[in-house]
UniProtKB/TrEMBL annotation:
Domain of life: Bacteria
HAMAP family from the UniProt entry: SecE
Subunit structure: Component of the Sec protein translocase complex. Heterotrimer consisting of SecY, SecE and SecG subunits. The heterotrimers can form oligomers, although 1 heterotrimer is thought to be able to translocate proteins. Interacts with the ribosome. Interacts with SecDF, and other proteins may be involved. Interacts with SecA.
GO molecular function: protein transmembrane transporter activity
Name of the protein described by the UniProt record: Protein translocase subunit SecE
InterPro entries named in the record: SecE_bac (IPR005807), SecE_sf (IPR038379), Translocase_SecE/Sec61-g (IPR001901)
Species of the source: Pseudomonas guineae
Organism placement in taxonomy: Bacteria, Pseudomonadati, Pseudomonadota, Gammaproteobacteria, Pseudomonadales
Keyword terms of this UniProt record: Cell membrane, Membrane, Protein transport, Translocation, Transmembrane, Transmembrane helix, Transport
Amino acid sequence: MNVKAEAKDSRFDMLKWLLVAALVITGVVGNQYFSAEPILYRVLALLVVAALAGVIALQTSKGKAFWVLAKEARVEIRKVVWPTRQETTQTTLIVVAVVLVMALLLWGLDSLLGWLVSLIVG
């Protein structure tokens, strides 16, 4: 891509982002302005405005990069080996046991130090 095309895309990206910002502001102000209307109509209008803003945002270079990232993340999440129910249960029990032991140790240390300070202070 040459420099002129990149500058042109950059300028159009800025206009698209301004349009997205205007749509978001319109949605917020419109929701406040039409607060007397039923919530269903306001939610539907906000969903339409949000979808339109999302479509416009995805047409920018950063939006396209985000979409590629989202698709790659979805592919990677499929590669994850999730633990079995037994592994999850065992790990949870180990964590609970360690937390309880540490709580008892800290309670004992706190009691000992409190007792020593009360002896010193009198």
